[in-house]
Each structure stands twice: as structure tokens, then as C-alpha cells.
Design a protein that fits this description.
Layout lengths: L2 E4 L3 H13 L3 E7 L6 H5 L2 E6 L10 H10 L4 E3 L9 H9 L3 E2 L4 H8 L1 H9 L16 H11 L3 E9 L2 E6 L2 H19 L4 E5 L5 E9 L5 E13 L2 E7 L6 H17 L4 E9 L5 E7 L6 H8 L3 H9 L16 E8 L1 E2 L5 E2 L2 E2 L2 E3 L6 E5 L6 E2 L6 E9 L2 H14 L1 E3 L5 H9 L1 H5 L6 H5 L10 H20 L4 H9 L2 H7 L2
Parallel strand pairs: 1-2, 1-4, 2-3, 4-5
Antiparallel strand pairs: 6-7, 6-8, 9-10, 9-12, 10-11, 11-14, 12-13, 14-21, 15-16, 17-20, 18-22, 19-21
Bound molecules: ligand MV4.
Length: about 500
Amino acid sequence: MKKILVANRGEIALRVMKSAREMGIKTVAVYSEADRNSPHVRYADEAVCIGAAPSKESYLCGEKIVAVAKSLGVDGIHPGYGFLSENAAFAKLVEEAGVTFIGPTPDSIEIMGSKLAAKEAAKKFNIPMVPGSEGAINTVEEAKQIGAEIGYPILIKASAGGGGKGMRVVNNAGELEEQMQRAQSEALNSFGDSSVFIEKYVGSPKHIEVQILGDNYGNIVHLFERECSVQRRHQKVVEEAPSSCLTPEKRKAIGEAAVMVGKSCAYIGAGTVEFLVDEQLNFYFLEMNTRLQVEHPVTEMITGIDLVKEQIKIARGEKLSFKQEEIEIRGHAVELRVYAEDPLNNFLPDIGKLQQYKKPEGPGVRVDDGYEEGMEIPIYYDPMLAKLIGYGKDRSEAISRLLRAIQDYKIVGVKNTLRFGQFVLQHPNFVSGEFDTHFVGKHYNPELLNSENEDEMNIAAWIAAHLYTKKSNTTTTANQKLSVRKTDWYKNRSSHR
Ligand code: MV4
């Protein structure tokens, strides 16, 4: 594989190209008119404009991308994430053109793209799943019967949905008929497939995902978990590896379950198996993502494995060069996604020019970004500016490094979520690990970010960090946890608002 085309833009395009270059592989960038001056275009050995700014006229045009690949003698295409990365038809088109798709087989993409098919495959391997319907439900009667069996609240989910789209919570039998009809029509409109299924609603779950790698010879390994519970409207904000809640036994069990999900579809390439983890640390298979994820850097930092290089090696037909027992966790990594959004105005995306843009550096700081000072932030694409990763010997050091990096990061010209990230990382519940997928909804209030609260925020941060350090140096006692709660002054303040 001497030349690969990266069918993507921004930070992930640059990220893939850097690993390819280290492997002595030439790179081809494709770009829209809005990205003419983007760093990934300048970094690539060759670059071809494939269309106008809107994604459907450029980055989503599979035929154009394959044509460019053929004309430039490209051996492989890396899709990145988003765009065509989980499009089975595109993967097929690439392979039919005699180019290697650097990703899973079209079959795996198809199976895991349907939540029902994914559950069906996983069931054969006894992977724990949330109680619910065996398959799709078609009538309200069926739904009522399931609801009576498993107990409310329940969730109606679209089989073709994902990432929270097409999910509806139903609290009692009376709401079922209306919610069922809405869910089916929404699924048909959004995904072209009206199939829905039912699951018991897990009230305060953590969202934990496991990275897996499979080669062409049936070898599948896991690279431990990522904790992704800090989300806002199903958009991950902070991710970390490893999770602060799993015991070594649970870590082993969830990793093995993820490998079994990979085996259930003969998975090849890098994939991520998503689980819900309840307060008793029971885990339930949710879905599988058949792409490299945004948050892959935290796994790379704690395992020392370059996932993009592994994807390319697997695509070249190489066997995995490590066994499961050789993969170890070393240290801790926390990632903050930096968005060009206004946290004081409901995270409205902001556009503008990066008048000042200086990245943090130094020990344990990694920045994966796709912008430079002076660039305009285009309105056409995801507003993520960068991923800022803090790495340390333990969670406390990783958090303190990330906080230092946030302070060193200079972004002038667009509103951004750095201060929101600071709020999250300094919050006593985050520091103590006592959080779940409702963290942002439960604890964030825009007024906490305005300046007069800054010193209070810092005091709380100091207390939380001090307690956490004490906690990580000695055994944890209930009253220490209690004291974290008492200092959780945010709650008191927000309660009297
Ligand atoms: C759930 C759940 C609770 N109970 N399923 C969200 C997106 C997709 N990965 C599946 N997701 C969930 N499925 C059951 N049976 C909670 C989530 C979930 C979530 C739900 C609402 C708001 C934010 C969330 C973040 C992560 C996971």
C-alpha cells in the first residue's frame, strides 16, 4: 500500500495522514471549495478539489472520491469518521474499484448499522443485553405486553437509529400508543426504516465503550474501555481511558464481551463496542460503531498503540502484531472536545476567523486539530475545532494537565467550549468519578461560567482536586466521599436559583 486517499477533512484527515507518512505511505487529500486552504490539503502529497462546500456536493460524493482514487493510482481509502465511514455501499464501491477500503467489510457495516441485527448477532454469543423485545415490534399490543413484562419506564428505539436519534422514553402504558406511532414515523422519516424495538430504560447509566481490533485471520483483541458519559444532547464532550469506575474484574469481563461482539460479525479493522453500565456495574451491550471514533486518542495514549497504523496494517493483510496479554494500560488520558459553540447561548455554533490561535504544548499534552491561526471556521461542517488530550501517570495528573492546557490554549475570534470544559473537569462529581450520562443536565448552568463565579469555581476545584488527591493516595472512606458531596457547592447554588 503505497498511496492512500483520506476521504475526510479537518483533524481526522490530518491525523490519518501523519500516521501514513510515518509508514512511508503517500497521501491524497480530497477537499471542498471551503477547505481550499485547510491544513490537511497542504499536508497531503497530492490534493484534489471534489466539489462545493456542502457535504452532499463534496465529502459525501462516493463516486467522485473513487474516481479520484482511480485516477491517481491510490491503493487504499481511509474514510475517517462521519461522512461515508459507516456507509456499506461506499465500502462496496471502493472494493469493486479494486481499491482497499481501510475499514471493516461491508457486511459488518450493514449488520452493525441495524441495532436489531447487531442484537441478534450478539445474542448468539450470550452478550448481556438490556431486557426488552426479541426483535422489532409492530403493534401497540405487542409493545404493551413487553412493557408489562419488563416494567416501566421503557425506551422505544429505532433499529436504524444510533447516537440517541430515534429514542423515546415511555413512562406508562397510557403513553405507549402515541409514542409508538411517533417513533415509527420518525424512524421512517429519518432513516427510511420504521422498525422499532423496546428496551427497559436504564435510569442512571454510564456510557462505556470498548475499542477492538480484528485482523484478516480471525484474531480480535480489545484495547480496554473509554468512559464517555459526559455528553450533551448525545454529543460527547469529555472522554477518558480507562474509566474511573470499573474494577479489574469488570474491565476484563467487558473487554471479553466486546471481543465476542466482534467475533459475532467476524469483525476486521478498528471498531468500538458500546455498553451501558448501571450503578451496580452491570454492563449491557448497546451497539457497535464500525469506524475509528473521534475519541480514539485516549486509547492510544494509555496503550501506546497507534490505531490508524493498525488499521492500515490490517488493510494491508498483516496479522495483529500483539496478543491480548501483551496489551497493557499505562497511565490515564482525558480528552476534551473543543467546539466553536457558545456555552452561554445554548451551545449555538459560532463562525468567524481564528484571529488568535495558539495551541498548548508540554509534557502530557496532545492536540489533534485541523485549523490554523487566520483561518475562517466554515459553517458547513461539524463545529469541532480540536481535541485536547491530557495524559498522566494517573487520573489526577491527567486532569490537572488538561486543565493547565486549557489555560494555555489561546483562541480569539470564535466563541468556544474551553471554559465549559474547565467547568466539567473541576466539578467535584467529575473529579470524584460520581457521574453518569445525566451529568451535564444535572450540574451545568451557563451562569456558572460567567466571570464573577470564577473564583468560587476555582475554590471548589481546589477542594475537589485536594480531596481526590488525598483519596487516590489513601483508601477511600465514606466520609471523604461525603465531604466531596458537601463541597459540591454548585448544587446548593443552582438549587436556590
Ligand atoms: C439507552 C439508555 C438507557 N436505557 N438504552 C444513547 C445513544 C445510544 N448509544 C444509546 N443510548 C442510550 N441507550 C436503555 N435501554 C441510555 C442511553 C444514553 C443516553 C440516553 C439519553 C441521554 C443521554 C445518553 C447518553 C448515553 C447513553
